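hey so i finally got around to running the thing on that chain from the lab meeting. sorry it took forever, my laptop kept dying and i had to restart like 3 times. anyway pasting the input first so we r on the same page abt which one it is
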Amino acid sequence: QVQLVESGGGLVQTGGSLSLSCAASGRTVYNYTVGWIRQGPGQGREIVAALWKASTYYGGPVQGRFTISRDDAKNTVYLQMNNLKPEDTAVYYCAASPRIFPPAGAYHFWGQGTQVTVSS
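ok and heres what got predicted. didnt touch it at all, straight out
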């Protein structure tokens, strides 16, 4: 089992930045795909970024603005979000899977989510 706890969400103006953290426990997440998955109001889940070992994936709308990283000593995955836009408003979930870059619905372990709101 992997337990995931997100932190770092909040309210920011357009063009601002936020950094999300996902602290994992139970297993080392180095051997898992860890993804940041968001769900906006009335929308489905969307993978914004994922990390497996040293490989990364970014969704089209966030490329060049978001960066996913991992601190193996802390067993924590981060999402640095820059140049935020109102359409980035969503609940952001951290999720982990033993599969390599699975689709959003195939992640096994989920955090509780953290709200990110970008005001215009």
